[in-house]
Amino acid sequence: MRQTQSMDTQSTKETPTGKLESVRYSLGFRSILIGFIAAAMLLPLFMAKQVVSDRTYYYRTAISSIAKTWGTQQVIAGPVLVVPYTEHIINIDTVTDDKGETKTISRDVFNNKTMVLLPKQLNIDAEVIEKHRKRGIYDALVYQAQIEMTGTFDLGTLPDKTSSKNDIQWKNAWLAVGVSDTKAIDETFPLRWNNDASSPLMPGTMLPNLLPQGFHVKMKDLEREIVLPKFRIKFNVNGSEGLSFAPVGETSTANIHSGWPHPSFIGDIPPVKSDVKANGFDAHWRVPNIARNYPQQWLLGEEKHDLYALKSGVKLFTPISLYAKIERAVKYGVLFVGLTFLTFLIFEITTKTRFHVIQYGLIGLALSMFYIILLSLAEQITFRMAYLYAATATVSIITLYTIAILKSFGRVMLILLFLSSLYAVLYFILQMEDYALLAGAGTMMLIIMVLMFATRNLEHDS
To answer: Does tRNA-binding count among this protein's keywords (predicted)?
Structure first.
């Protein structure tokens, strides 16, 4: 009797412990615990993202510094012909004196005016030669552009020189070209005027409100008697990021050639024809003056117009830069940790083996270190080799650690295969531009389907 009562008491005391152990080893509790560990891995992933952000900032600072010394994004506007003249007006007034006599008095009025004349025909031909400049470990894509501007001016639109009412001061006239970053002008050639005269280029446009920066040419030694004189302006300019032009001609055409295979056409009007190949691109624009909102000529000081309001050009686009790739890779970090932990959890269920929570944490840290290793290597070697080394190191560490835990090489092959496939898929997603989101979504659906298949026979916790 006493023995039975003692056994009942012992059974009563052991029941809470048995329930605690049952909850502790249940699938639901393990899933929640592993979920908390996976959430804790957001901290090292966030720190890795901060390192990538800092390196990105240093990279952009270095690129900006190189651009300031080499040349910024260039915008070419012009040429414009500026012709001062004196307008002679005779004012005739009729007055009546105190005696009632009417007299006619003529008075000469001289008004100094300046006309701005845009080209009738403008052709721009630019050869963009890509170059690379390094600042420490950072590499910047820059260019040197060989620009040739040809066309004609219609001098018939100037005030009539045969009239005594107008005195054109051709010796004070000048031709101006706007260049957004003049300190990057590398080489210049004299202006060719109607193929038989030339004049050197001089600094400044003398039009601070219309063309703040650029150069000009004095017209005093150049012929003015020709109605449609031809001009040719040739110069070399350094720049970075992109090259644009303002279509100031009555009819403007532009041709830009380059050996860079990744152009991005920018501006208000796209090219009418472009040919992009692996060894470079050719682009052609044709813009009539009806596309802009300023006239062909006007009086300086009486009208204000913005020649930069309409422009087109090309940007030397760098497809998915190094830091953009790594930043995108970090965004998949939570997915990597979650899927890896879920794989280990399924491995526990199917093999009746349990991993310690500390082991989960160390595996999560190894996954987080992948991005730091990738970043440090990619700044020194090619991204492909850096990714291969970083992924191999991460997968190898986790695989060897799992072998040491399970004391079995054969069981770990599935984990090795899964991690290797995961990093391989991520690499191909990072290489994509237009289809990266589609590939990522498809990969996620495939992984979910595989996990559903692996967990199809799970039973409720007893």
So the answer is: no
Q: Give the predicted TM-score (pTM) of the model.
A: 0.71
Q: Determine the average pLDDT of the residues in 329-337.
A: 78
pLDDT at 304 over 60: yes
H/E element holding 217? strand 214-218
| pLDDT of 234 | 95
Instruction: Identify whether 370 is part of a domain.
Output: yes
The reply to whether 393 and 352 lie within a common domain is yes
3-state secondary structure of 41: coil
Same domain, 131 and 247: yes
Residue range 178-235, pLDDT digits in tens: 999 999 998 899 999 987 778 899 999 999 999 999 999 998 888 777 888 999 999 9
CA distance 385 to 377: 8
Arithmetic mean of pLDDT, 88-112: 69
Residue 12 in any domain: the answer is no
Give the max Cα distance, the chain.
156
The tokens 């899927």 sit on which residue?
339
Last residue of a domain, one of 318, 334, 363: 318
Domain that holds residue 284: 72-318
Within this chain, do residues 302 and 345 fall inside the same structural domain, yes or no?
A: no
Q: Which pLDDT score, from 0 to 100, does residue 230 have?
A: 92
User: Residue holding tokens 């409100």?
Assistant: 209
Average pLDDT over residues 288-311: 90
Based on the fold, state whether residues 114 and 45 are members of the same structural domain.
Answer: no
Contact 135, 66 (CB under 8 A): yes
CB-based burial, 275-304: b 16+ in 10 Å, e otherwise: eeeeebbebebebebeebebebbbebeeee
- The yes-or-no verdict on residue 3 having pLDDT over 70 is no
Which of these three, 268, 288, 318, is where a domain ends?
318
Q: Are the C-beta atoms of residues 103 and 95 closer than 8 Å to each other? A: yes
Lookup result for tokens 């003249």: 85
Give the CATH number for residue 115.
2.60.40
Q: Report the alpha-carbon distance of residue 74 to residue 144 in Å, rounded.
A: 11
Contact by Cβ (8 Å): 265, 281: no
Cα–Cα distance measured from residue 23 to residue 26, given in angstroms and rounded to the nearest whole number: 5
Question: Does some domain include residue 6?
Answer: no
Helices (H), 73-123: none
HSE-CB of 363 using CA atoms within 13 angstroms: 30
**376: in domain:** yes
Total count of domains within the chain: 2
Q: Where are the beta strands (DSSP E) in 24-173?
A: 74-96, 102-117, 121-135, 138-152, 166-168
